[in-house]
């Protein structure tokens, strides 16, 4: 049973690391960006591509979402949960992913 749990855990976590940019595996924004991975991918190539975008562009978009009170979609909810510093770390992480 314990062996099955270990194998299952490894199989579930492997995809998250298989496509990650090795240069950013220890980036402080990576953990914060984990909420983004479901849609944007660990490498920034999901539904909306973030890989290689300018930090300022990502920051501006997230800050717009933070201060748009009528907006209630998932992006606004995530954006509103982060501090300005956390948003910069997330933006920096995605900006360092290769285009």
TrEMBL record:
Gene3D superfamilies: Cytochrome c-like domain. The keyword Cytoplasm does not apply. SUPFAM superfamilies: Cytochrome c. It comes from the Bacteria. Residues 24-98 form the Cytochrome c domain. Keywords: Heme, Iron, Metal-binding, Signal. GO terms for molecular function: electron transfer activity; heme binding; metal ion binding. Residues 1-20 form the signal peptide. This is Cytochrome c class I.
